[in-house]
């Protein structure tokens, strides 16, 4: 199948794409890529705005030091190599040489220091929190950056991706008012595509970066991101051939089977390994009888999640086994069993303090799929003898009710951000349970033992030690069932089969289309 | 009474309407007996087409729920909402209209301006606003429908009372020393009843439509299986499972049609002179 590797570009493409690219023939250059973007991003300045659509579009412009494969292992991008000191407190990165920004200015270690230490520390709230672990940064020469950490920080190597740590051109931003810098409207990065035009409400147009530092990349000449506000119209835009790539979540679940079955159409649920959206139902542990672990266990065993996956999510996604998604590194395999078992559920319920109370189910107001899901859960509960009713709400009402802890059980889903210290501990830490936010420890789970372990695991330098700590945490939390875990959601990317490599990293379509090529027929 | 039935029977459409309505009522009453299980229960694999499985003649919906059971239980909900909200609307509209018509003058002005206030807001929009403010439960759905549908009753009753209050028998009653309440209740309202009955039958139909529309939009009680909900839940799969929207749609169509036909029959039967004129 393979010709001998002659081109550096091919070699690089193979290294970058890993096992996935091995299937394809020689990439062809040229062509236009048409992609749906939903909703229209408020800005493309990834250092200031990090919502979903911005990350997706601006991932073509901005880059960070590494890229991550489906197992979340880091690979060289702007950094060629790196070393970690024995004590886990010093990280040294060696930058690639000959990299320039889109305006021709060379990319150096000064840009890294400025981006991380000045710009993102101030403008990027999630990154700002991570940077609290960094004591100081040094730039011994133009292509070396050294981070000195206050203490070991396990997830550190996992934060160098464009949405978290985009490299910002120092020469355009230093000493300016970052938020109001006119350069925000013409974003400039080191990425494979350059910003060309943005017609608000219609499309965003990128052109190929001819001077891209990876030889032979990118393959396509231009990208159009089409803004199509209505979900049904987005499905139609694909059906009529206006767009070729539908990123995860851009059409309704119930349209997926129809579009998926079209000719020349491929579907993949890869590319979400880092975010790993995990859905669950909060259980209000302050409400009786939900404070009784037997009631919660009964509820957990009552849930037929296989059915929900097949009937509502088109068979995509995975049944969750606990608080840590299986696509992330610290997922523990053999945690206590929480599978569908109505008989066991009835038995547990009989032993519990449940006395006919009506459990209020707060559904997630994100459309039909979630509404049907709440109805299915209500039936699951009723089958084992738990009375329940669905509380209707809109998005504002849902936010309010969850923030005020005004529910018995409530649907939600949250991102894992690749590491339990970033995406899981926030949901279970006892000191993160103050009412007022719908995203913290909403269930009010208080367990000093897991709190302590979470704190320790975050700053452990040794990978295996961390793994052991998180295993212990998962065993304890799953045994307590403070939340009812549902599915690791699958948001499939749908694309024409002759568009090659649209998804090849743990960030999926967010990660820039540098390796995409279009097969001509 | 015999005359009434004769005149009603003369309108063939009305008889058909009555038969359909009787069937719907029977279905509603028998639903809990024939389908003792909750209509929400997931009994089979989803999207089973009609007439493919014994015991599930109309197939299953997106979650594998029995469509026939849903239709039967939905009949009960539709009739309940239609009847109760109409009764509530009458309970508001009749006294308002009667007082406005009988006392006339400033009372009339005040009450009619109040009524017009409600009439100027499109009723469906008002119902949506009311349900957005309240929790959408069955009680509030009924209240919301009643609130938006009483003004026509008030106006109709006012008109009737206005024309009746100057009749001799009312003057006679006044002269004989009867109080206002007695006169309104005993002498005027019974004579204003025929058009109210006709209007009420049409209001039941209107209320069923309103409830269905609200449920369709997801503003109904999420714990209650109604026809509008069934259509709303099925509209997203209309290209792959059209019968899921079609069947409850037919149920609504037939019920509302039946009520309208009955309303017409009642009109014929209660206003014999009008009927003859139109012949």
From TrEMBL, chain A:
One GO term describing the cellular component: ATP-binding cassette (ABC) transporter complex
Main location: periplasm
Database matches in InterPro entries: Peptide/Ni-bd, SBP_5, SBP_5_dom
BP term (GO), one: peptide transport
GO molecular function: peptide transmembrane transporter activity
Record key words, sorted: Signal
All residue ranges annotated as the Solute-binding protein family domain in the record: 73-427
Domain of life assignment: Bacteria
Subcellular location: Periplasm
Signal sequence range: 1-22
Record-linked PANTHER family: D,D-DIPEPTIDE-BINDING PERIPLASMIC PROTEIN DDPA-RELATED, PERIPLASMIC BINDING COMPONENT OF ABC TRANSPORTER
Family named by the database record: Belongs to the bacterial solute-binding protein 5 family.
Protein name (database record): ABC transporter substrate-binding protein
UniProt source species: Roseovarius spongiae
UniProtKB/TrEMBL annotation, chain B:
InterPro entries: BP-dependent_transpt_permease, MetI-like, MetI-like_sf, OppC_N
Coiled coil: none
Taxonomy, superkingdom: Bacteria
Membrane topology per record: Multi-pass membrane protein
Annotated Gene3D superfamilies: MetI-like (1.10.3720.10)
Compartments in which it is found: Cell membrane
Keywords: Cell membrane, Membrane, Peptide transport, Protein transport, Transmembrane, Transmembrane helix, Transport
A GO BP entry: protein transport
Family matches, as PROSITE patterns: ABC_TM1 (PS50928)
Transmembrane segments: 12-35, 75-103, 124-150, 196-220, 241-262
Keyword Membrane in record: yes
SUPFAM superfamilies: MetI-like
Gene Ontology terms: cellular component: plasma membrane
Predominant localisation class: membrane
Annotated ABC transmembrane type-1 domain residues: 75-263
Family: Belongs to the binding-protein-dependent transport system permease family.
Protein name as it appears in the record: ABC transporter permease
Lineage: Bacteria, Pseudomonadati, Pseudomonadota, Alphaproteobacteria, Rhodobacterales
